[in-house]
Specification:
heterodimer, A: alpha+beta, 11-stranded antiparallel beta sheet, 11 helices, 34% helix, 24% strand, disordered N terminus, B: alpha+beta, 4-stranded antiparallel beta sheet, nucleus (chain A), centromere (chain A), chromosome (chain A)
Chain lengths: 361, 316
């Protein structure tokens, strides 16, 4: 590999510095970065990486409290991106919790339908820090927001039920971009939410007006889904992923769904064979775990050609909607589930990258 | 019609049960369709008999015709009666405490409802198994059958229908009528023709671009082949097809995998609100290359939607 490489501690991401700007520009158009952006120095650093370090199984239970991890794994989150927050202070969390509670109560009184468990509920909001998820010095700490509901006539001993939770995070965010932001901005671009849609809107609404930020849906595009298929297959070397399942939809009438499930050992062998044929494979220990997107493409093409050989149906005419394995599942509509905390950091680093690419500024 | 004929007819009508009346008359065929339609089968047997006698008189039927009717009924009923009795007795022999109800519908379908109990408990009517058998066909449709009771039911069915063996047809779905139509090809078939009709020249005054013409021909060919494989018009509604693939990986660009001896294990499930229409559309739009691969054409051809594919036997 040519050029120098930058590595930050615990980073799961390797960037390739190339010599000419035109090469960089062409890579950007390849991966669908919003066109019409002007080429300021901060922006050229934000592009979808075409080279990635393979996720390694990390035991993060030492860094992150097990009860926090339990909140995050084995549950399906809806993804959004959010622009940097203005004057957000990690020290003011109790104040924010009070303000958000009041906001939700006020909106409910106004008749905005929240519809969680009946009209007599009171909502209690809590903000907390999930320490240990931030990987680099530039990553702000992850913030968890929970909304708990207590029915009006509940007994004292009844524990309040969590009806909505969401968290803002930045895991292995691009350091150049993070450092380029003005002082008062906190960048937590990845927003994951779970619970009633009405409450999601209220929380986003409050965050928008309090921190002058913007939310948008983070769809997991075809490229990212393909990355996940390859990365999860790669993980099979360390952890049994049981099966690699992919769901496509074909644009016919009525729509046809194709669920293609591959045995994990066979998928891994196919993956290995595509890596071996990679012309750029060098012998260094670090390079062995660096995965190029062209390898991902070859892997997917191998799977699709096996399919074509039997059914003579071209899967690329359709759209990949979902990829799942024992390690988790990812859907095109921006829903992600991580089943194992060991790969949480790697997957969310990938998602942080996707969120940063969506920044309009 | 003389008195003997009338008498015979009345006596015969007393024998024929109401549920078999319509189908027996249809089989007989001596009364025109209009006349048969004019009979109201919801009335009492006596009224129907009177109307039938009147119709037969109109058609000037004789004793010979009535005896014909009697023979048809006898053959028909014996078949059904035998089946009913044999099935009940076989099943009761195999398992105690089963409750069996058999009913024949007018469309040649025999519906059987089995509530299972065992030596200790009474038959459970909440979880009954339904079986539908079309008498003249070798097909049986089963719903809600536990694996414990399966061998018993299948044995009783095999013996009572006087067959030697029963095996899974590997076809399942949500609509009984769709499965039946698929198996018995009761939907619009398109037969392959060696010389399909030429494309009508719609606009002879304007010379078409060559590309358009070639595309139109290709499209017409795809549509034709799609229709020949799957059928025309409305297709029976299947919801899914499942293929378990255990074949070797063959890709000229990937030597390492091609040289492997072991099969590449994977499974493919196609699902849709109407699978056959989706597949037909795939073929006609070019998403599926034509001619359609035998794996997909087996679905309508063999009336199956569960397949295990290995290298040695293409359609196990």
């Amino acid at each position: 590999m040519e050029g120098s490489r930058e590595r930050t501690p615990h980073s799961g991401v390797v960037k390739r510095r190339s010599k000419s700007q035109s090469y960089r520009r062409s890579i950007r158009t390849c991966f669908g970065v919003a066109s019409g952006l002007s080429l300021t120095p901060a922006l050229t650093a934000r592009r979808m990486n075409i080279c990635r370090k393979a996720p390694r199984s990390q035991n993060i239970t030492e860094k992150v409290k097990p009860e926090h991890l339990a909140l995050l794994v084995k549950t399906e989150w809806q993804l959004s991106y959010v622009t940097p927050l203005y004057q957000f202070r990690h020290t003011q969390l109790k104040t924010y919790a009070r303000q958000l509670s009041a906001f939700i109560a006020a909106e409910k009184q106004q008749g905005l339908a929240v519809e969680v468990g009946g009209l007599q509920n009171t909502f209690k909001v809590s903000f907390s820090v999930l320490q240990g998820l931030a990987e680099t010095n530039d990553d702000p700490e992850t913030v968890l927001i929970q909304v708990q509901s207590k029915p009006m006539f509940a007994r004292q001993e009844d524990p309040p039920k969590t009806v909505w939770s969401g968290w803002l995070s930045c895991i292995n965010g691009n350091p150049e971009y993070l450092q380029s932001l003005p002082k008062d901005f906190t960048c937590l671009p990845l927003f994951c939410s779970k619970g009633a849609e009405g409450l999601s809107s209220l929380v986003k609404s409050w965050l928008q007006r309090t921190f002058d930020c913007c939310f948008g849906p983070l769809d997991i595009n075809q490229t990212t889904l393909q990355w996940l298929a390859a990365l999860w297959t790669n993980c099979h070397m360390e952890t049994n992923i049981q099966k690699l399942k992919m769901i496509w939809t074909l644009p016919v009438v009525p729509p046809l769904q194709v669920t293609y499930t591959v045995d994990s050992d066979d998928a891994l062998e196919l993956w290995r064979s595509t890596r071996e044929s990679s012309a750029e494979k060098s012998r260094g220990a670090e390079d062995e775990v660096c995965i190029d997107f062209s390898e991902v493409t070859r892997f997917m093409q191998g799977l699709m050609s096996h399919f074509y050989r039997h059914f003579r149906v071209d899967l690329s005419a359709g759209e990949l909607n979902q990829v799942s394995s024992a390690l988790g599942s990812a859907k095109l509509n921006g829903k992600i589930k991580i089943s194992s905390s060991r790969y949480l950091i790697s997957i969310f680093s990938l998602l942080t990258e996707c969120a940063l690419l969506k920044m309009p500024i | 019609m003389d008195n003997l004929a009338k008498h015979l007819l009345q006596r015969l009508m007393r024998r024929i049960p109401a549920s078999m009346l319509q189908s027996t008359l249809d089989k007989w065929g001596r009364l025109t369709a209009e006349k048969r339609k004019s009979l109201d089968f919801t009335q009492s047997k006596l009224t129907i008999t009177q109307e039938l006698v009147a119709l037969c008189e109109e058609s000037e039927l004789t004793v010979k015709h009535i005896t014909e009717l009697e023979m048809i009924y006898d053959a028909h009923s014996v078949e059904l009666m035998q089946f009913k009795e044999q099935f009940k007795s076989h099943l009761s022999e195999l398992k105690r405490n089963v409750s069996v109800k058999i009913k024949k519908h007018t469309d040649e379908a025999v519906w059987i409802r089995v509530a299972w109990g065992d030596g200790l408990s009474r038959p459970n009517h909440l979880k009954a198994t339904y079986v539908v058998h079309y008498l003249q066909t070798p097909y049986v449709f089963v719903n809600a059958l536990s694996s414990k009771n399966k061998p018993l039911l299948l044995q009783a069915l095999t013996l009572s229908t006087k067959h030697q063996q029963i095996k899974a047809a590997n076809l399942s779905g949500q609509k009984l009528t769709a499965l039946r139509d698929l198996l018995m090809r009761q939907y619009q078939q398109v037969f392959p023709t060696k010389y399909p009709s030429p494309l009508p020249e719609s606009d002879q005054s304007i010379s078409k671009l060559r590309i358009e013409k070639v595309q139109a021909e290709a499209s017409a060919n795809r549509h034709r082949m799609a229709g020949e494989t799957f059928g025309d018009g409305m297709l029976p509604a299947l919801q899914s097809a499942f293929f378990q693939l255990e074949t070797k990986f063959k890709d000229p660009t990937n030597e390492a995998m091609t040289q492997r001896d072991e099969p590449f294990i994977c499974s493919v499930k196609f699902s849709s609100s109407n699978l056959l229409e989706s597949l037909r559309h795939c073929a006609s739009s070019g998403i599926a290359s034509t001619p359609v691969t035998p794996l997909l054409s087996s679905i309508p051809l063999k009336g199956r939607n569960y397949f295990v594919i290995t290298d040695n036997v293409p359609n196990a």
